[in-house]
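Subject: sequence -> structure tokens, single chain

Hey, anyone have a minute? Need the predicted structure for the following. Not urgent.
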Amino acid sequence: MPLTLAKIEELAPDQAALDAARKLLRVQTWPLLAFDGAGFLWGECQGSGASPYRVVVCEDDGGAKCSCPSRKFPCKHGLALMWLRADGKADFVNAARPVFVEEWIGRRRGASAAPKEEPRASMAAEAPPPDPKDEVKAEAARERNRQAREASILAGLDELDRWLADRIEAGLAAFPATAAQKCEKFARRLVDAKAGGLAARIEQFPSGMLALPEALRAEFALEAMAQWRLIAQAYRRREELPPLLAADARQAVGWTLTREALLAEPTAPRAKGRWLVVATLSEAQPDRLRRLETWLARLDEGAPAFAVLMDFVPLAGGASVGFGFSPGESFEAELVFHPSQAPLRAIVAAQNGATLRDRSAALAPRRDLSGALDAYDDALSLSPWLGAWPLATRDVEVRGAGKALWLCDATGPEALPLKDDAAAPLVGAGTISMFGLWDGRRFAPAFAETALGRWVRP
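Reply:
Had a minute. Here:
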């Protein structure tokens, strides 16, 4: 059944969604518009984020799916895609269904509905083959969007240079008093420039600085600013860098790979093994999304030894935060890592078997504290804007010194200051194994195996 404007109005959840969809009817906003001749439409809509939203619609029943964080159904992107089709003024490419469309169709079909899809498959087989000219046009539109984003990022980096120069000229002594306001405002500007990775670093900077003793804040600010400047310069000169370091610069600025692109990337490292979930963290971002991090430690021999899975949910509306895994769970899986000098961010390509929760899968680090710090130094030498890095160490103790807590080598001189007092229950617990994140100044404990049982950061 063909889509009509009247049908779209019936499907819209409210008038606000229709009004928002109307603003997306510019063809330039859609680098891809396609159909399969069998009742399914899909497209890519460039929003304010790093990657375009992927939208798929069933013309017969108005079913829709979008990768945006909206909780309205259909969302404005789904409505706009239907509207463009009904209006007849946009060119839709006749193409084979991509993976994300096939996955959605498979999920909504169900076993009992499978026979109903057979005629549809026959119709698809009779549809004319995709026009190569249309595919060329779609690729050209994607390239124009990519170039526009590149230009926007470079303009944002030029603004960053000027902003940093102003901060240095004004002096760092007074900066802590106004850092929160100034950093939040400039982070929003970088979000507009499509440089969300740098924006997140700058917005998170004030809280990290103010948590330090006052005597260390100016040094911390100077180091952070130098790091932002280094990222900007590396991004500008990425054509001159080794490919993996250039990939790190792109990721630091805010470019990401879709799941499909990462799975198809020949340089992406892969690792099969058993993984223990050691931490789940939630962080608000300046692009109005909440980043959910699931940290994994490898239980068997091999590299990489750690991985972090990332998901994103909207900040607004009090949406519940849900992680796919919980600390203490373990599973067998193949992970695919984003190309990097120091691979860490990954996706689960395939999980083998069920997720388990039992003490037979225990954190058993092979490094002492000194060896864990050496591994951090090695990673830092490969990626100088590294940020927080996972450490897992054996034979350590949590000790108190005044109001401060320290992670100490049980038999050696090494000691790291702890970020907060979350691990206070471990004081006096004796020798333990510990996982946490080290930023070069303070250690944030997240997971420990002790003689009295397992400790997980509350």
